[in-house]
Amino acid sequence: MMVMLSCVSVYAGESSIPAAANDVAARFQTDRMKADLKFLSNDLLEGRGTGSRGGRIAEQYIAAQFAIAGLKPSGDNGTYFQKVPLIGLTTQPESSATFHFEKGDPIQLRYLDDFVANALSLKTEEVIDAPVVFVGYGIHASEQRWNDYAGMDVKGKVLLCLVNDPPSADPQIFGGRAMTYYGRWSYKYEEAARQGAAGILLIHNTEMAAYGWGVVRNSNSGEQAYLENPAGKYALPMAGWISENSARRIATAAGTDLSTLFEKAKTPGFKAMALPMRIQGRLKAAVRPLDANNVIGIIEGRDSTLKEEAIVYSAHYDHLGIGNPVNGDDIYNGAEDNASGTALLLELARAFAEAPGRPLRSIMFLCVTAEERGLRGSEFYGKAPKIPAEKTMLNLNYDGLAMWGETTDVILTGADRTSVWPVVQDVSNALGYRIEPESHPEAGYYYRSDHFSLARVGIPAFSVDSGSNYVGKPAGFGDQKYREYIERHYHQPSDEFNSEWDFSGARKLATLGIAIGWRVAEATEKTGWRPGDEFEKSRNGSQ
Question: What pTM did the predictor assign?
Answer without folding.
Answer: 0.89
